[in-house]
Design goal:
8 helices, 53% helix, single chain, 2 strands
């Protein structure tokens, strides 16, 4: 659910492209405009880029994980719909908004670099995170109770037995909690690839 402090009104007025201003107003008017996308956080990242790089074009890349059979899960389908609707509403040439799944991002890397470490790293990412989730499993997870090491509740009480998934329930939870790690690793690789690109442009 979108939420902004009053301070963002001033920043939007000073920095944002008209299409982002319109999206900001729409989010304030309807805090539930997107059910599966944290659009407010993306607006805040956008403002950060506009403020940090006023004279430089850049890209705001939204990365997300989904299983290989995402199309059979309503939550993932609706998330993609939200992302596409958000993307179509924006048209700032200074900060281009792009969205891509981790799986789509990693796949080209397998043959993009001659470095052996890259191929091995991407193969390891695929081996761990390129998985399917059995239809209906997410609904059961949303109605179950788990706590992490700090005792924070992750889900509600388990009301019925879980079906046998394509991967285990614990593996699904492990994937969700491991996204911070793969996000960090992906950013490291993007920085390395960017450095390679810069070297090629300089040569």
């Amino acid at each position: 659910m979108a939420s902004f402090s009053e301070a963002y009104d001033t920043r939007i007025a000073a920095l944002a492209h008209p299409t982002w201003k319109a999206e900001f107003r729409a989010l304030k008017a309807n805090r539930r405009r997107y059910a599966f996308l944290d659009a407010a956080q993306l607006v805040k990242h956008y403002l950060g880029l506009r403020n940090s790089f006023p004279d430089r074009r850049c890209t705001l890349l939204y990365l997300y994980w989904e299983p290989t059979n995402a199309t059979v899960h309503d939550a993932f389908v609706r998330h993609r719909d939200d992302v596409e609707r958000f993307r179509r509403a924006l048209d700032d040439p200074a900060v281009r908004f792009e969205a891509e799944s981790y799986l789509d991002l990693w796949s080209p890397w397998e043959g993009q670099s001659e470095d052996v470490w890259m191929a091995r790293h991407v193969a390891g990412l695929h081996a761990r995170y390129r998985v399917a989730i059995r239809a209906g499993l997410l609904g059961h997870l949303a109605a179950s109770t788990e706590c992490d090491e700090d005792g924070r509740e992750m889900f509600g009480r388990c009301r019925q037995p879980l079906p046998e998934p394509a991967i285990s329930r614990d593996e699904v939870l492990d994937i969700f909690w491991g996204l911070a790690d793969i996000h960090s690793n992906t950013l490291d690789i993007l920085r390395i690839l960017r450095g390679e690109d810069d070297e090629e442009e300089d040569s």
